[in-house]
Design brief:
By secondary structure, the protein is mostly beta strands. The chain contains no helices and 7 strands.
Amino acid sequence: YIEIFNASEGSLDLEGLILATSRADGVSPKSHRFVEGSVNAEGYFVVWNASAVAMPCYVDYSYC
């Protein structure tokens, strides 16, 4: 999982944010564009790479 922290004083809209990953050598690049989500001021948003059905209650978004 990944935690996104909003250090600002206002809400942050995550729609359109692109999460990009790859191996250290640049092989197997993957990306995901967020279709929804927001982080309250000084709040956390937890992102998870698993089925939405299997998400624990503390996870806010699945990109599986």
